[in-house]
Amino acid sequence: MLPILELRISDLCRIETDLFRGGQKVIVGQTTCYHFDALTDAAASEGENIDRFFTKVIVAGMATKPVKTHLLFWYAPGNEHLFLSYTDKRLQIYCRWMHEIRGYFEQGREALHPNAVPIVYYDGKNCYRIYELPRDFDSEKLYVSDLCGLGGIYLGETDSEMYEYIKANPTEKYDYSVVPNESEEILTVNGRKHVLLHAFWKTD
Question: What is the pTM of this model?
């Protein structure tokens, strides 16, 4: 079973009042927009699904330009674009390497999209691919993530046959990924090896 992280969103993000949304509280961060088709082509050219492609880019980027600040990376799908955001409490971090991802369109500071979901947590040293803990979580069951529903990332149960099929066919099932059983793995990106940790997360 993967470990469970307790993340307090208010400690990791800048929360402001949005007067254009009726005065509601919103999370503000740096959001990068990518063209969907170009990005999925880039993932396919590396034999990866969307999840794995973004995760490898984040892990390599943070290893190249490490910071001591804790960051939370958020993923939000759209109709023709994908959005990758990152937040820190003081909004002082700028990840320029995110411009180098194929399909890059634009980047700016703004309120996160309503369907944005945390995907990677950086604790100042390590990157965690994080999965929201299901309410009815069962450690004996297998789970997969659906990354292209407009609601964000949907985590659901699956059987062993579909789990192995998604795992073995990342470019065909580019919008799905499996939740691994092991909490640590070694990623190789551009010839360099990086540690990636996996964990469920919940808010306190």
Answer: 0.94
